[in-house]
Amino acid sequence: MTKVAILMAEGYEESETMLLADLLRRAEIEAITFSTTGEQYVKGMNGIMLKADQLFSHDAVSECDAVFFPGGRPGGPNLIADPEVIRIAREFNEQGKFVTAMCFGTRVLPAAGIIEGRRLTGYTGYEQFMEGACFLGDELTVTDGNMVTSQGPATVMPFAFALIEALGKDTADIKKRMLYDLAGGR
After folding, report:
1. pLDDT surpasses 80 at 184
2. Distance (Å, rounded) from C-alpha 24 to C-alpha 75?
3. Does an H or E element contain 88, and which?
4. How far is the C-alpha of 43 from the C-alpha of 37, rounded, in Å?
5. Separation of alpha carbons 148 and 153, rounded Å
6. Average pLDDT of 163-176?
7. What's the rounded Cα separation, in Å, for the pair 132 and 117?
8. Can you tell me whether residue 102 is helix, strand or coil?
9. Widest CA span of the chain, in angstroms?
10. How many Å apart are CA 32 and CA 109, to the nearest integer?
């Protein structure tokens, strides 16, 4: 089964994290939440405590096919400050595994030095942090090879569907059951 590691630092953005995990699981993709705090329960930016599936370990995350860096303040900065998180981003990119991010989580990518010449998007105004990349700020989600990025909490569904499709799964049935196309999702 395809596995996606969802890394949660203290201050992660709850809606990005939980909705993505839910949609991946609906697509029969194993979404594993990893706490980078050393504690099983991680406090989000809005104070919601989430029990991670596992504590972060390099070996466990390395077994996954994709890694996701959610946004949030101070979640994003806490991810960037963790050298093991940066190491994972670099290794996944070097191995051609999927490196995915949303909102402040997209800032992990330049911190890891993996955006040169890449097309990506992120939170409004983040173009200044994406030097060397082609920042497509008007795009909800952008897929460039093994990198999938999105703007923020309001774009979780299109991001999830782009990631699911990048992982080789059809999203038509999920979209139909969720009335996504009928509601005008893009």
Report:
1. no
2. 21
3. helix 83-94
4. 10
5. 15
6. 94
7. 6
8. strand
9. 43
10. 20
pLDDT in tens, 125-164: 899 999 999 999 999 999 999 999 999 999 999 999 999 9
Give the global pTM. 0.96
Question: Cβ distance 26 to 18 under 8 Å?
Answer: no
Tokens of 63: 């077994």
Q: What is the C-alpha separation between 91 and 169, in angstroms, rounded? A: 24
Domain spanning 3-177 has what CATH number?
3.40.50.880
DSSP state of 123: S
| SS3 (DSSP) at 76 | helix
The single residue listed with the structure tokens 């983040």 is: 126
Sign of CA dihedral 21, 15, 90, 33: negative
How far apart are alpha carbons 123 and 165 in whole angstroms? Answer: 22
